[in-house]
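User: These chains co-purify. Model them together.
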Amino acid sequence: MLSKKNQYALKAISYLTKKMGKGPVSIVEIAEKKKIPLKFLEAILLELKKNDFLDSKKGKGGGYYLHKDPGTVSIASIIRAIDGPIALLPCVSLNFYAKCEDCHEKSCKIKKVFIETRDATLKVLENKTLLDLI
Amino acid sequence: MLSKKNQYALKAISYLTKKMGKGPVSIVEIAEKKKIPLKFLEAILLELKKNDFLDSKKGKGGGYYLHKDPGTVSIASIIRAIDGPIALLPCVSLNFYAKCEDCHEKSCKIKKVFIETRDATLKVLENKTLLDLI
DNA sequence: ATTTAGTCTATTGATTTGGTGGACTAAAGA
DNA sequence: TCTTTAGTCCACCAAATCAATAGACTAAAT
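Assistant: Joint model of the four components:
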């Protein structure tokens, strides 16, 4: 399951996608509209900004906004930025690979099942973008 | 990602599937062969037994064994027994459904994406069985 | 009766999750 | 230039979960 943080992140960025082109949106507005704890959302938006999904403007009239073409931002990339691996096993993760100890069998059948699972999952998540959230 | 517990569970049950028909296998043997901490494995096997995946025999010559047709035991069912939900959001889980607060929009687009994801994932995990692990 | 092997309860240390509080900095506008 | 607005950064926290471990108990075989 995705963490609450990730669920909030998706709600927030989806909201910003809808509001795209209408100028920056304040954290307070997003928090109220999407019912997300303010300080928690603060941290989440900052993280999304550091991962280059969002940009922000300080001071009056400031806030966060999406600065990328929403059609090019995959849902998979957002999940990876917030929660990390999408694959169910470290040894089949494309972006967070870690070899599993004692899996000396050259062709681990467990691995095979989870590669197939990963591919099925990613086929959806890599091809869905922010546009699919609005 | 699957918990370590779940990874151990899969290794253990896969080992027992290979050894099927050859009588009970002791926890100690499984622990050594699959490099799983003994006491942790103990708890895991007990849980798998309580979920009716395994049966056991006490005393000398005892141990754990698979008592079901391995072709009928899906990988999805094992994951659910140990880690719980496979879906990425509570509100799209088939077996562990929980409604998400404040998702008053009748057709939540986020939900839609994750239903599709769930279905793609389950299409693999529901159709792979213990036979695919050996 | 002894050995073997599973069962049950409970505790534990480390890490992650889901937050909160408060000080600081940059920008706009009067 | 002062005030207000709004993002940034740091530090901390309680509760839950994870990954085990310890030890006493029970059932079966010889």
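Chain A touches chain B at residues 1-2, 7, 10-11, 14, 34-35, 75, 79, 84-85, 87-90, 100-102, 109-110, 112-113, 116-117, 120-121, 123-125, 128, 132-134 (CB under 8 Å).
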